[in-house]
């Protein structure tokens, strides 16, 4: 009886893990396809996902995480302590905390939580992409970043198909084994 209960629990855990993996894969796939088609970062209900690949915001935001940001609008007001994602003059996305508000809220001094000092260049409000929502998915950022390359995007498009074919072959093989075992047991059972 305990063995059957363990098998059911194991199957349920496997199903949950598979479902979560498919959801993450679908979200990343959606993000890649829409960004490749439009040339922009996709937004879902005013939110975007961004990969964080440096440790400047540790321990709150782990290296390799995906974060969700609320896309900034013209009416947004930012204050000291807000965590924002912005574009630097070198066209690099950075997520840091506002350490100081300058010029009546048009410029901000930012700092990574794990960095010793503030960033050298102030951030102009027009360079702010969005505000961090506090939602983080650890380690998915690495996969997210890989999909930005052509090879990674192609792999992401073909991987689900390969996995489905593999799953189908395994299911077929198991069904054939069960069928063979059933036939063998029928052949060995004397007829009454």
SSE blueprint:
Elements: H1 2-38, E1 47-52, E2 65-71, E3 83-87, E4 93-102, E5 107-111, E6 123-124, E7 128-137, H2 140-146, H3 150-188
Antiparallel strand pairs: 1-2, 2-7, 3-4, 3-7, 4-5, 5-6
Helix pairs in contact: 1-3
Characterize the quaternary organization of these chains. single chain
Number of helices: 3
Order of helices and strands: HEEEEEEEHH
The CATH top-level class label of the largest domain: Mainly Beta
List segments where confidence is low: pLDDT < 50 over at least 5 consecutive residues.
Answer: none
Structural class: alpha+beta
Average predicted local confidence, pLDDT: 82
Cα-to-Cα separation, first versus last residue:
31 Å
Give the tally of structural domains: 2
Which sheet architecture does the biggest sheet show?
A: 7 strands, antiparallel
CATH superfamily of the largest domain: Umud Fragment, subunit A
| Rounded Rg | 25 Å
**Total count of strands:** 7
Strand order, sheet with most strands: 1-2-7-3-4-5-6
At CATH level 3, the topology of the largest domain is Umud Fragment, subunit A
Beta-strand proportion: 15-25%
CATH second-level architecture of the largest domain: Ribbon
- Principal-axes geometry comes out as elongated
